[in-house]
């Protein structure tokens, strides 16, 4: 499962999670998590920490980092993610990248909430 999918799935209700996990998960690499119980534990980690990290599960030698994006009602509507080469992402680099991804998702969530509260004709500036 890729990081953005994990972030979205982690914030759906249990019935939706059950539906998704009742279907076979295709293995993209030998590191792809396939066990539904393991995936559920990882989804709990995403909810607890506010982000997901995967290594080599979709693309060998790639690390994915993602954080969920929420609407004004607190419903998950997407995720922000980045990918990088594992060889270039040591622990120090990951501790730099994770907060950036989480902050970007929080900024988008905030902007979505502003747009939704301002009404259908509202717009935000294209850049910050």
Describe the structure.
The chain is an alpha+beta fold. The protein has 4 helices and 3 strands, in the order H-H-H-E-E-E-H. The protein has one domain (3-118): 2-Layer Sandwich (Beta-Lactamase). Helix 1 (3-10) crosses helix 3 (36-49). Strand 2 and strand 3 form a beta hairpin. It has helices at 3-10, 14-21, 36-49, 91-118, and strands at residues 52-55, 62-70, 76-85. Strands 1-2-3 form a 3-stranded antiparallel beta sheet, with helices on both faces.
Relevant CATH superfamily: GAF domain
The description of the largest β-sheet is: 3 strands, antiparallel
Q: In the CATH hierarchy, what is the class?
A: Alpha Beta
Instruction: Give helix and strand order, one letter per element, not per position.
Output: HHHEEEH
Question: Which architecture does the CATH hierarchy give at level 2?
Answer: 2-Layer Sandwich
Widest sheet, order of strands? 1-2-3
Structural class of the secondary structure composition? alpha+beta
Percent helix range: 40-55%
> How many independent structural domains?
1
Distance between the termini: 32 Å
Keywords: DNA-binding
GO molecular function: DNA binding
Domain IclR-ED: 1-114
InterPro entries: GAF-like_dom_sf, HTH_MetabolicPath_Reg, Tscrpt_reg_IclR_C
